[in-house]
């Protein structure tokens, strides 16, 4: 049995929208996509886990970009994944979804941030939407 401790969600871009798109920065620079805050109570909150899910709409503009997505808790990286994004002449539009589980988070308020960065020179990929990021903190039995 699990007990919900907190939930947070944000949706900076609700849909695919070329007019509101922006270019993903090259590593080591990061494009911040979304931020949420999760609160873990002091009492009766251990053990716990925070289940995080992000979806990012990305469009390949030139070349085949390798996009590094990261999730940070309070500025410390806790998860990353890489997605190849093709451009013209092939697939161009992607809805990249990934999830992470942060276990036994200490009590207090925690800021989770999802970022993207392009790791491939001479390529371009843009965030075109949607962007959504959610977190669910639960107390677990073990």
| Highest CATH level, the class | Mainly Beta
Dominant shape: elongated
Strand coverage percent: over 45%
Give the end-to-end Cα distance, rounded to a whole number of Å: 10 Å
The value of Rg in angstroms is: 16 Å
Q: Which residues form runs of ≥5 with pLDDT under 50?
A: none
Total of DSSP H or I helical runs spanning 4+ residues: 0
Overall number of domains: 1
pLDDT averaged residue by residue: 96
> How many DSSP E strands?
9
Largest sheet: 5 strands, antiparallel
Helix content: under 10%
CATH topology: Jelly Rolls
> Which CATH architecture is right?
Sandwich
Instruction: List the helices and strands in order.
Output: EEEEEEEEE
Explain what you see.
- The chain is mainly β and about 140 residues long.
- It has a single domain, classed as Jelly Rolls (Sandwich).
- The chain is built from no helices and nine strands.
């Amino acid at each position: 049995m699990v007990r919900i401790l907190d939930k947070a969600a944000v949706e900076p871009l609700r849909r695919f929208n070329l007019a509101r798109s922006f270019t993903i920065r090259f590593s080591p620079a990061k494009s911040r996509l979304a931020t949420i805050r999760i609160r873990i109570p002091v009492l009766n909150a251990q053990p716990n886990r925070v289940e995080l899910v992000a979806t990012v709409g990305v469009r390949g503009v030139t070349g085949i970009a390798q996009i590094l997505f990261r999730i940070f808790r309070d500025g410390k990286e806790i998860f990353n994944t890489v997605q190849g994004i093709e451009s013209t002449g092939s697939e161009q539009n992607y809805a990249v979804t990934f999830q992470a589980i942060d276990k036994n988070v200490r009590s207090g308020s925690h800021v989770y941030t999802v970022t993207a960065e392009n790791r491939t020179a001479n390529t371009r990929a843009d965030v075109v939407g949607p962007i959504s990021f959610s977190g669910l903190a639960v107390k677990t039995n073990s």
